[in-house]
Amino acid sequence: GVIKPDLIAVHHARVKPLKRGVLNMLKRLDKIRFRGQKRDDFLDLAESPNGSDNECGDDILLRTRPSLKSQDTEELGDPAGSGALNMAAAFQDFQRSESDRLNEVKGHLEIALLEKHFLQEELRKLREETNVEKMKEELERERGKRLDLELRMNEVLKSRSVMERKPPQGETLYLRAWRWLYDRLGVYIEDFRFVPEENTVEAEEPLSAKRLTENMRRLKRGARPVTNFMRNLSALSNWHSVYTSAISFIIYMNAAWHGWAIPMLLFLAILRLSLNYLIAKGWRIQWSIVPDITDPIEPSKDDLTVSEKFQLVLDVAQKAQNLFGKMADVLEKIKNLFMWVQPEITQKLYISLWVTFLSSCILPYKLVGFMIGLYAGIKFFIIDFLFKSCPKLRDKYDTPHIDWNNLPTDPQLKERTNATMSRRVRTRTYESTVPCGVNLDADSARIHSTKKGAFHEIFNVSENERPLPVCENGWRCCLINRDRKMPTDYIRNGMLYVTENYLCFESSSSKSASSKKNKVIKLADITDIQKYKVLSVLPGSGMGISIATPSTQKPLVFGAMIHRDEAFEAIFTQYMKITTTSRQPLGSPEL
Q1: Alpha-carbon gap, residue 591 to 107, rounded angstroms
Q2: Strand partners, 291
Q3: 357-366, long-range: CB within 8 Å, 24+ apart, which pairs?
């Protein structure tokens, strides 16, 4: 078998058009494949994932062309035997390449279907997230409403134009008058249209130490004018400057006598605003009865250490706590005053209101104003000065001051209720243990524990000595006796009580009544009492009370008291009541 050259040409002519068709199909599939956005999400089935199908086709073309040339040369060299073998090998290579091409086309089709599926899923998710259909429906509704309003407006305008062109003969004057009134008063009528109030919730700022410190400083700066005004009034009432207070007293009493007290106060307010206007314009005007207190210069925050910053935050928190506590005490006392919590105090207010009401109904207003102005001047300039200068006189005769201090707060009411309930339970328990034929006076005896006797037996005092109502349950504390050196005698845990004449400490380690570990201090023997800070390292003002007596070399310290301020006030007040006039009293409780 000799193979003719024309047969070889025919085979080559059949192969080339088939290759071109395959290449065109691959190009179209490549365009479909990389039409979406996720081109790199799928790996190509070829050997190089980043290469395109055109590159693979070019490689095949480059590979086939040399084979065809070699076949031509071999046919020319050996037209008899080698041509058939080369043709058979070329045909097998072509079949293999075509099968590989078909597999590759199949893989590309699968990839295109997967990309279509993923794109459909993304489109569905986007439609669900954006709610395009709902927005389209709402848009159509709004368009319909707008069209309806336009139609109505057109009808109204047409009807008005018709009425203006052809008004009825009987209603011409009426329509003109109505139009004139609407043009003049329509703007004011629109202001009275009721609009529902919108409840807007303000966003709360998170807790920040820096913000808390800045707010406390702002509060202090904002309250400075009010505090300065109150300081000036207090200095005027205390006769800090004798000449100023005397002149003010004479002017005020003269104005009150002639009925000019209110005009004088209004004139002073106008004068103060005028001075503030001049100060705002740059005038240097400064008038004050007492000298102004300049705030200390605070160091910059950059120079503070970590411990100083922590101490600064603690100081701010302590000031905020004390401020809120004082405000809560005032509000609770006012509430309890009007709610008849203390009937004897509220009864005084009730009677005074009735007297004032009847006086205003019977007496003329000029006389009532004269009496009120005259009493206010005497109270401010004379009575308050005497009460502030003489504390004992104030504790006896200043009725508003006494009633205000006796008004309880809610925590004090709760403590009294709990103390009363516990006292009833203990009294009943003690009554059940008392033998028959023995009388028990609940007011003269008080049981603190089932192992010990009555209060006067525990401390060896008279039967009339009982704890004050403020400390019926006692204050838990520890007694630090710095004169002793033994650890067991140096610190003792127990309860502290205050009676009318004694300060009693009951040790928790005492096994019997009238134990030597219990401590009884006579209030009249106290030479010094102060608030004490046991550990200076800890922040705050401490939780201890230091009491000095002639029998001790070093003052006794009652430390670890949670209610230290309350105990100090009670001890100091009771001490002031029993101190004789011949003895020099202690300093103020603010020491």
Answers
A1: 94
A2: none
A3: 366/259
Contacts for 231-240 with beta carbons within 8 Å, 24 or more apart? 231/290, 232/288, 232/289, 232/290, 235/289, 235/290, 236/289, 237/380, 237/381, 237/384, 237/385, 237/388, 238/385, 238/388, 239/385, 240/289, 240/290
Say if residues 589 and 569 touch (Cβ distance below 8 Å). Answer: yes
Separation between Cα atoms, residue 94 and residue 16, nearest integer Å: 11
| Cα angle 154-158-163, degrees, rounded to a multiple of 5 | 150
The whole-number average pLDDT for the span 143-158 is: 85
Between 260 and 85, name the one with better pLDDT: 260
Q: Rounded CA gap, 211 and 205, in Å?
A: 9
Q: For residue 277, what are the CA distances in angstroms to 264, 274, 280, 450?
A: 20, 5, 5, 73
pTM more than 0.70: no
Could you tell me the two tokens for 384?
């308050």
Is 477:494 a contact under the CB 8 Å cutoff?
yes
DSSP string for 18-76: HHHHHHHHHHHHHHHHTTSS-STTS--SSS-TTS-HHHHHHHHHHHHHHHHHHHHHHHH
Greater model confidence, 126 or 362: 362
One-letter identity of residue 387:
F
Provide the sign of the torsion angle of the four alpha carbons 243, 248, 254, 257, taken in this order: negative
How far apart are the C-alpha atoms of 385 and 400, rounded to whole Å?
15
Q: Among candidates 420, 536, 423, 548, which has minimal Cα distance to 481?
A: 548
Report the chain's mean pLDDT, rounded to a whole number: 75
**What is the percent of the chain with per-residue pLDDT over 90, rounded to a whole number?**
19
- Specify which of 247-256, 275-284, 529-538 reaches the highest per-range mean pLDDT: 247-256
Contact (CB, 8 A) for 123 and 43: no
The residues, any chain, with a CB within 8 Å of residue 241's CB and separated by 6 or more, are 235, 289
pLDDT score of 55? 41
CA distance 574 to 467: 12
**CA atoms of 392 and 573, how far apart (whole Å):** 11
Strand order in the sheet with 544-548: 519-522, 502-507, 491-498, 475-480, 556-559, 544-548, 528-532
Contact of 579 with 395, CB cutoff 8 Å: no
CA nearest to 15, candidates 76, 64, 55, 83: 64
Q: What is the pLDDT of residue 376?
A: 93
The two tokens of residue 228 are 């300065």
